[in-house]
Specification:
By secondary structure, this protein is an alpha/beta fold. It is built from 6 helices and 6 strands; from the N terminus they run βααβαβαβαββα.
């Protein structure tokens, strides 16, 4: 399964600090058996994030995971960049992530991350914090393989 990772962060894209969340995500996805075909860092910009998601869709990846930009600060725009590219919204996945994270971090409910599909690609927005990414990996492990089978047209066993 091929995956593209997109980190949305003004500071990481400017080299102010290292993209720790993106690295955790890359390692975690590889440990789950995904082939990471791209991992990019872009500023918190709707057009740039949307361009990277579109590029990953064109590359026919199975999974696109973004990290960062899902909160409520003025620069958090990842859901706005993602929404136009989702053809089928999967709100239960976003709720699963918030529910899993809620006990550890009550403010997890402020995350506006989206999940959905476009063609045969699953798209998921994760928070930018290392903890949010680790929680996201748990949800990916539990849900995404079955979702990808369904997207591919396999029937329930």
């Amino acid at each position: 399964m091929k995956v593209a990772i997109i980190t949305a962060s003004n500071r990481a894209s400017a080299g102010v600090y290292q993209d720790t969340s993106g690295e955790i995500l890359k390692t975690g996805l590889q440990n789950l058996g995904y082939e990471v075909i791209s991992a990019v860092v872009v500023p918190d910009d709707v057009a740039l994030i949307g361009l990277e998601i579109s590029s990953a869709l064109t590359a026919n990846v199975d999974l696109i995971v973004t990290t960062g930009g899902t909160g409520i600060s003025p620069t958090d725009v990842t859901p706005e960049a993602t929404a136009p590219l989702i053809k089928k919204l999967l709100p239960g996945v976003s709720e699963a992530l918030r529910a899993y994270s809620r006990e550890k971090v009550p403010t997890a409910d402020l995350s506006r991350g989206l999940a959905g599909i476009n063609g045969k690609t699953f798209i998921l927005n994760l928070p930018g914090s290392p903890g949010g990414v680790k929680d996201g990996l748990v949800v990916i492990e539990r849900i995404v393989p079955h979702a990808l089978e369904q997207i591919a047209g396999k029937d329930h066993d």
